[in-house]
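Anyone have tokens for Amidohydrolase? Sequence:
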Amino acid sequence: MCETDHLDSSGYSRRDLLGLLGMAGAGLAVAPVLTGDPALAAASDLALDPNTMPADPVNYEAPTNLAVDSPAKDSAVSWIDRQADRIAGLNDRIWEYAEPSLAEWNSSWAEAQFLAANGFRIEWGAGGMPTAFVATFSHGTGRPVIGFSGEYDALPGLSQEKGNPKHSPLVYHHDPYAPTYGFGHGCGHCALGAAAAGAAAATAAAMRARNLDGTIKFFGSTAEEQLVGKSVAVKAGVYRGLDAFVDWHPATGNSTSWGSGNAMYSVAFHFLGTDGHGGSPLATRSTQDAVTAMAMLTEFLRESDMAHTARMHHAIRQAGQAPNVFPTLSSIWYYAREGSPARSKILMDKIVKCAEAAALATNTRMEYRIMGGVWNMLGNKRGAELMHANMTQLGAPTFSEADQRFGKALQKSNGSAETGFSDKINDLRPPAPVFMGGGSTDVADISWQVPTISMGTAHQPGGTKNHSWHHTATAASHAGHVSMLAAAKYLAATTIDLLTQPTILAEMKEEFHRRTSKIKWKSMLPDDYQLPLYEPPKWFLERTNQSWPPRGVTWPPRRVVSTESAPDLGPELPPFNLPPLE
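Reply: yep, here.
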């Protein structure tokens, strides 16, 4: 083959990729090179589906007549306006709790109580996870059934004072050798859950006021940041029986799409060795060396074993705590993202090989555990068009001059262009003809069970990063409230249309069935998967009427303990390494 025909690690030649990039302009309908991976093809490249891909993607214009004005929609939106302080208060309480994944005791309780006060019935322990719940409101015939998603976990090290555009952690842990910051909502899940709960309650209020048939199911989801909650619940059947699912996530713009994201495996590696002293390190099995070696080895995968769609990253979670104390246990945690479950597994298998090599080189013992596994996202074109029509109908969030000054100050501290918060609704555009990889979410597993609509609002200014203290600063600010309440209105308005426009809901379902007809979803979690749980406090179990441990969970879990002995260095050498005297 000539140089331009060389294959990258995705299996596509450069000529193939150039052809794909030109598909939109050329109006091509089918990309045969993608048919080898049905999940990647169905989710990422809609050119494979001429019924879904616009005939002229470059000049595509989103339909404007899908969002219908109705008394029910007016009721839902006005309810959010009247209850804005309560919804913002829920957001701020969860922001202040800033609880880690799988331990959101106060946050999940606050969200469930908000919904219970608005007529929802609460069931705790969804999928065997104590802080996961399902809140249900039903009226009339109970059909159709629409799902909402609430998340409430924070991220480590992202504590920050609200409304402060300069880095100033709210929680600072003093340690002269290794200071750390507390947890913070640097992904905006306080707003995600509050807006979704507000939208669900507003929709329920409109259903009562306007006598609409249907059921609203709100899924309080734990540990999205660890890609655990929804994938476990989907495997357990918690999301069965839905007709559609509406979701949102804080973002830097106001937009929706029917694009995809990466599938992902999450695996924790533990290396076990022996004790040692820095002054006499001989005959030590160094686990810190093992995690260091593994981190180095996996870097060599990037050049020739990772496609343009792949992402790989790690965090050393446990290693030496003092220079002269060799730890008997060290741990490193990896994410492997790729465009489909099959590709993600291949990448993670290579990472496992690197772990095995690191253990071999350092004379340590290695064991690993799958912590999570999620599919690539399956969008829904008709659903995105409906959401976009409602976003356009309601208009973009209206930020004050003070909000914009705050946003520009955040951008300045980040070194990005000082444009402030986005105050426009982005055009709805078809997904790019070539998937280039990206983030992952456990919402993806839901999207293969039921037509799913996703949306984002400008919850942080453009140019700032998600998973950053900048986002924590906005999440409980006035600007964050404006964006969060706009999201609640978009979600509620779209759901009202789903309840009152059966034709659009049928079109969404027909598209979903067409695109999944040749794909059998199977959880990426193994059958012997162990939930990574923490024991809840007594008060939480009592309030939620749960027992411990959940069914099928062994507690306490198996301990990871080193039983290694010092390595054999061979027979003793005589003095000065000389032959013995005759």
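The two ends are 69 Å apart (CA to CA).
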